[in-house]
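As noted in the main text, all predictions were made from sequence alone. Below is one such record, for Contactin associated protein-like 5a.
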Amino acid sequence: MFAVIHRGVNDNCIGPLVSALPHSSFQSSSQSSVRYAAYNAKLNRRDGAGGWSPMVTDQEPWLQVDLKEQLEVTAVATQGRYDSWDWVSSYLLLYSDTGRAWKQYRHEDGVGRFVGNVNSEAVVQNKLSHPVRARFLRFVPLDWNPSGWMGLRVEVYGCSYKSYVAEFDGRSSLLYRFNQKSMSTVKDVISLRFKSHQAEGVLLHGEGQRGDYITLELHRGRLDLYLNLDDSRLRFSSGRVAVTVGSLLDDQHWHSVHIERFNKQVNLTVDSHTQHFQTKGEGHSLEVDYELSFGGIPLPGKPGTFLRKNFHGCMENLYYNGINIIDLAKRRKPQIHSVGNVTFSCSQPQLVACTFLSSGSSFLSLPSAASATGGFSVRFQFRTWNPDGLLLSVPLNPEPQRLELQISNTQLRLTLHSSGQQKSEVSTGLRVSDGLWHSVSLDTRNLRISVTVDGEPCSMTELWEQVESRGNLYFGAPCSKNSGQCPKEQDILQRIHR
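Prediction:
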């Protein structure tokens, strides 16, 4: 039996990717026993117990596959454990370049849940509405046979693809210089993938003396495209119009961009979401003088300096009207001039963000450690659009004190709970529910608790006695049993330093 759920297909990229992988490519949160190990989870195989099953006590089960290299994935298939009552009826699919920072796959309608199996033998294939490029995949069971247990065998379909990567360090760019003084085009096709942890930065720019320009840049974690044809009045005007697509694109994950222009009609696609618009100005062609710049807008006559903040991150498969810009740069062709330090690999980020879902059970627990001078301190970064949410909860000595840092009505509020109903509160005046990264420093030394946000003057409250953390620090955690009503909605990313 074989069932297929259609969500889109690439007929040239449907080869099986899992069947030939070694045992070392499979990992899991747990296994019932060695016979139920993750490496037994290959489609239609009967090895071991006929598939993977986690321990019955596993509260957050997952099965992970390492494809050994970054590949293009177009479909996934699942099957229950052979000749059993164990199967998974729905699941989530996560993907990653590194096996550290994960992103959840979502269909075009925004739904992340995949339909799984109704018995142990039928194969259910889900074709992805938009392919992903990843090395690691993780299957996260949501529902399973209520009369049995979780059982899983999997296959992944796709193909290899050629990757041309360049990394920009925030002070570099690539200049593609034309053979003639200017380049006039009626049709343009520009495509690239990028990933960055910076909310600002120019990805590409070109302009002409007649007033034409094209600029694609990250701004506040979103993509802005400025495009003007033959209208010098708009060149220096503060009223120039940007088309904005996407959000939270500075999340250290790859994002795809595709720009198609024919005359005044433009399609801008970011991660499968397309916006259609018409250019400003009276002309139908884009005239750019001398060069296109990727990674920044160089200041004329001053190499290495930029008009706007330049891009800090990685670009992959950057094409301008069929020209492979990164390949030309890597081969040091004369059409490409490199400004600053552009390298042809993509380093792994030092900091990895984690996402707290809208759930009271979504939290991170870290062991606490007292400083040499007494008390404790914590530094982290977060971002959210939610006006309310618990960021940090710390049990304190002497008991039953505890410290809570939360967002309340878009502002940070620090609360020290003492015995009984006693509590001390201090709030900051900054609005932090704007989707941007904010840094927080919390310190409990010298008989005071201080909190600093984004380097602004700190807010503090006095202590009667020095406090110390007791047990773990809880980030994004639900309130303790004694804390009363807790914020329910959270969608907070954090980078934590101790």
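The two ends are 54 Å apart (CA to CA). The first helix runs from residue 232 to 235. These features were considered when defining construct boundaries for the mutagenesis experiments described in Section 2.9.
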